[in-house]
Amino acid sequence: MKYKPRQRPVTARLLTSVGWLEGTFHVPCNGGLQDLLNREADFIALTDVRTSRGTTDFMSLRRDGIVLVLPSAGDEVLELATHHHVDVSCLTDFGRVNGELLMLRNLRVSDYFARAPSFLRLERCRVENDTPSGVQARDYAEVLLGTRHVQGVSEQVVTDATTQEPRALAHAS
User: Fold this and answer.
1) Given pLDDT bands bounded at 50, 70 and 90, which one contains residue 74?
2) CB of 102 within 8 A of CB of 164?
3) Which of 54, 69, 163, 170 is an S-S bond match for 144, by CB 3.0 to 4.6 Å?
4) How wide is the angle at C-alpha 100 spanned by C-alphas 97 and 104, nearest 5°?
5) pTM value > 0.70
6) Which contiguous run of DSSP H or E holds residue 124?
7) How far apart are CA 122 and CA 60, in angstroms?
């Protein structure tokens, strides 16, 4: 009998290269949704899928076609003292995603993205879509962003009100 690890359902909205859909991932209890998305498999299984054209009980979805994943509930991530949050802005195929990226201390954003996984977990995000009528923005607690669709990334910098010198946004660890 083949071993099958215990799983938990994680429902999510997904932006794909062909539009939006909703469905349920089945995530091993000993890992997170980001771990599942970053596996080497070309296709990822979804159940209870809803699209603009109808519903289906099961769909095998091409991983490279996933642009953005919006989980309905938080997916726990272990934060270590060796990590910190960095504010980044990602230019994507559809607009911009601004949010906090958890990464190793003493690692530059450019070095992180040189070896970035297939999907990034960003927290406290603003997703800005370019539309014919202008930019539409919406805030999310977290998103998983497919790096295949990221065209550029920058660390967000703000100006210190006292010195007028640029400084990176700081977050408590």
Assistant:
1) low
2) no
3) 69
4) 130
5) yes
6) strand 119-131
7) 25
- Record the tokens describing residue 70, joined without a space: 């919006």
Render pLDDT for 114-172 as a digit per residue (tens, 0 to 9): 888 899 899 999 999 877 888 889 999 999 999 999 999 998 754 444 555 544 443 33
Give the integer Cα–Cα distance in Å for 106 and 13. 34
pLDDT tens per residue, range 11-67: 999 999 889 999 999 988 877 888 889 888 899 999 999 999 899 999 999 999 999
Two structure tokens written together for 52? 């603009």
Q: In the chain, what are the helix, strand and coil shares in percent, each to the nearest 5?
A: 10, 60, 30
Given the structure tokens 């990221």, which residue do they identify?
Answer: 150
Query: How many residues in the chain?
Result: 173
